[in-house]
From TrEMBL:
CDD domains: cytidine_deaminase. Residues 20-157 form the CMP/dCMP-type deaminase domain. It comes from Capnocytophaga granulosa. It comes from the Bacteria. PROSITE patterns: CYT_DCMP_DEAMINASES_1, CYT_DCMP_DEAMINASES_2. The lineage of its organism: Bacteria, Pseudomonadati, Bacteroidota, Flavobacteriia, Flavobacteriales. It holds the Pfam family dCMP_cyt_deam_1. One of its GO terms (molecular function) is cytidine deaminase activity. This is Cytidine deaminase.
């Protein structure tokens, strides 16, 4: 029997400590959160993606009376980005989530489905996607790669070089 230890580095910081580009990305996620359609959960989430051409794509959670038909903020932004800018790499994603009525200022990290969807593009583009999770009150959790959020991840990928 062998025992192993899995560890990864992440940063916790304040919004004011981010560089201007990251700050702008987080503000975009916060702004997009305000347009979420979440009447069932009242949990509003915004996401903003920075693409390699400098374009920022935003998205928010869109719920539905038939619950599974809704979509998280991250995938709303992600699929729009890849549908419209398929050649661009995704450099970063900022995420901001909190209760709409009584915000607690908690940091929201991507759900498992969103991690898997992000992983697919991180692997195909062969460079990390940085994750910036922000609370509505400006506390930041920075993770350097989606792979850090999915240990022993499942990859089954089409690569153009294959
Ligand atoms: N949600 C997101 O948009 N992103 C996440 O990473 C976590 C959850 C949404 C889904 C649902 O509309 C609401 O938050 C409550 O789960």
């Amino acid at each position: 029997m062998n025992e192993h230890l899995y560890q990864f580095k992440y940063k916790t910081l304040k919004l004011s400590e981010l560089n201007e580009q990251d700050k702008t990305l987080v503000f975009s996620a916060m702004k997009s959160r305000e347009q979420a359609y979440a009447p069932y959960s009242s949990f509003w989430v915004g996401a903003a993606l920075l693409l390699s051409n400098g374009v920022v794509i935003t998205g928010n959670n869109q719920e539905n009376a038939a619950y599974p038909s809704g979509l998280c903020a991250e995938r709303t932004a992600l699929f729009y980005a890849k549908a419209n800018y398929p050649q661009e790499k995704i450099l970063k994603i900022a995420i901001c989530g909190d209760d709409a009525k009584t915000p607690q200022g908690e940091i929201t990290t991507p759900c498992g489905n969103c991690r898997q969807a992000l992983l697919e593009y991180e692997c195909t583009q062969d460079s990390p996607i940085v994750v910036l999770c922000a609370s509505t009150q400006g506390n930041i959790l920075e993770i350097g790669s989606i792979k850090d959020l999915l240990p022993f991840c499942f990859e089954l990928l089409y690569k153009e070089t294959d």
